[in-house]
Amino acid sequence: MNTTILIGAFAFWLAAWALNSWLAVQRPANVAAQRAIDLFVPVLFGVTLLVLWEGLARGFNIPTVLLPPPSLVWERILASSHILWADFQQTFLKAVLAGYAMGCGAGFLVAIAVDRSPFLKRGLLPLGNFVSALPIIGIAPIMVMWFGFGWESKAAVVIVMTFFPMLVNTVEGLQASSAIDRDLMRTYAASYWQTLFRLKLPAASPFIFNALKINSTLALIGAIVAEFFGTPIVGMGFRISAEVGRMNIDMVWASIAVAALAGSLFYGVVALIERAVTFWHPSVRGG
Amino acid sequence: MKKMSVTLLAGAMALGMAHVAHADDVTLQLKWVTQGQFAGYYVAKDMGFYEEEGLNVTINPGGPDIAPPQVIAGGGADVIIEWMPAALAARERGVPLVNIAQPFARSGMQLTCMADTGIEGPQDFAGRTLGVWFAGNEYPFLSWMSQLGLSTEGGENGVEVLRQGFNVDPLLQRQADCISTMTYNEYWQVIDAGISEDDLVNFKYEDQGVATLEDGLYVLEDNLSDPEFVDKMARFLRASWRGWEYARENPDEAANIVLENDETGAQTEEHQQRMVREITLLLGDDLVLDEADYQRTVDSLLSEGSDPVISGAPEGAWSHAITDAM
């Protein structure tokens, strides 16, 4: 047990905690300073967690097959960046993006159909409910059997996972426009499609983006878990499960780090697009 | 009356606990789920061989997400069953496993291909799709491909490798030309699925000269300096070998014992009876690790090209200390 490291990590934690607590209550007049504080506090928090992890792992001499310290994980990321990049391309660029686009697209189109027809609403929504409740651990091997070992089966799993949230949120959103707005469009003799594109869809966009943000995380989870069940020997899910078996836990964490980064960036991009499209919504205007 | 019955109950419990206090606890972590592959240990438990040696043995089944080296590193077992390549790799990564016994002298691993793919020998593998499990079972396969000079990245002079799940679907669904099977398990799943033996071409790792040692018993190195532990393990090995010999003589009874211990209820009588018969063919004459076999496995792993399983010859990875004390 390395007491110097433990004490050092503990001291860093206390100092960072004190600093963050002090910074969080500051109210500088300067807007730039406020922004800097807003950025600094979470970054310091994250760094403190990493330092604590490193300190505990090294201080208690925890075997690396149980918990590798972050420095080891970082070394592994640098050493195996080509492997991680190939995995990222296979899982994210192929399976996640294709599945996400098709799943959200299908959910969107079905929602428009459901909005038009009360018959479909009563028939399709419960079915969608059922499909969404199917556990991914059960669907994934079946998709592998149907669509083969390649990225297609992973995209299929992502489609199944992302379809229902998109469907439900879009249906909800299409009904969000108020009666007075719909009456207004009627007085303008707007056709169904004009009403759809000029009123209902813009009013539905906060709901649609809600679903898109949820689906961005679900898609990544779905693709990675689906890869546990049969894959060519490349892909983030494959890497995690194979390296766990080989006791290369630092590689597992490296893969997790890449997946976390990819998921956060994906979510961030969708959120940015949302801010641009729903600029009129009170939550974006800050009202 | 109530006071008397309470006293009697307390007395009985004390007697019972006094008996249990003499027995040493041993936790065994299996490499896979409860099946005929581990018949010897279940037989030794149910037939009372462990009890006769003064041992109280808990057998923990493994499964797809359970890596025995991690279990023992986390303190969840005293002794584990593992294949030698995976154990040597774990040793290199900081889990100081030592082989104390090697019940399986022969390898049951093979590569099974559909005959209509036209594959007649290893020379036909180039450009094909081969399936192998991972999670520690891929080392013999990677070693073999390396010795054949075939890259596992695909392409004309390589092979496309699929990570197969723990079933034989890739062969049945024609997603792979060949898949990895064990002589005692997946091979029979293929036969049960309706494929006749004439439609299959089989390559046993033993025949190809690339076999590595499979089920062996491993403990953590520090424990070997504790004489009480050594004595406990020696008794464990003695009783386990009695179990294996019993299973060899009475395969159907052993299969029944395995089925009774199977908590999932997923195993069938026919499959287990076959498995026990096939597995006893892999047993050696005794539990002692033959150093020549060990060396062959190490050489096979070291001869792998670009991505060797182990980077150097292991030291102190096996010990006869326990088998000598048997």
- Residues in β-strands, percent of chain B: 15-25%
Q: Given the helix and strand composition of chain A, which structural class is it? A: mainly alpha
Quaternary structure type: heterodimer
User: What is the terminal separation of chain A in angstroms?
Assistant: 54 Å
- Largest interface, and how many residues on either side? A-B, 22 and 27 residues
**Number of helical stretches of at least 4 residues of chain B:** 14
Any idea what the radius of gyration of chain B is? 22 Å
Q: Overall pLDDT of chain B, averaged? A: 87
Give the name of the CATH superfamily of the largest domain in chain A. Answer: MetI-like
What is the string of SSEs of chain A from the N terminus onward?
A: HHHHHHHHHEHHH
Task: Explain what this protein looks like in three dimensions.
The complex is a heterodimer of chains A (287) and B (326). Chain A contains twelve helices and one strand; from the N terminus they run αααααααααβααα. Chain A folds into two domains: 3-62; 77-285, MetI-like (MetI-like fold, Orthogonal Bundle). The model of chain A has no long low-confidence stretch (mean pLDDT 90). Chain A is flat, with a radius of gyration of 24 Å. In chain A, 82% of the residues lie in helices and 1% in strands. Chain B is α/β, with parallel strands linked by helices. Chain B folds into two domains: 19-105 and 213-324, D-Maltodextrin-Binding Protein, domain 2 (3-Layer(aba) Sandwich), CATH 3.40.190.10; 109-208, D-Maltodextrin-Binding Protein, domain 2 (3-Layer(aba) Sandwich), CATH 3.40.190.10. Chain B is built from 14 helices and ten strands. In chain B, helix 6 (139-148) links the parallel strand 6 and strand 7 (160-163). In chain B, helix 2 (39-46) packs across helix 11 (251-261) and helix 11 packs across helix 12 (269-280). The A-B interface holds A 63-66, 141, 144-145, 148-149, 229-233, 238, 241-242, 244-248 and B 67, 69-70, 73-74, 86, 89-90, 93-95, 134-138, 152, 160-165, 169-170, 173, 175.
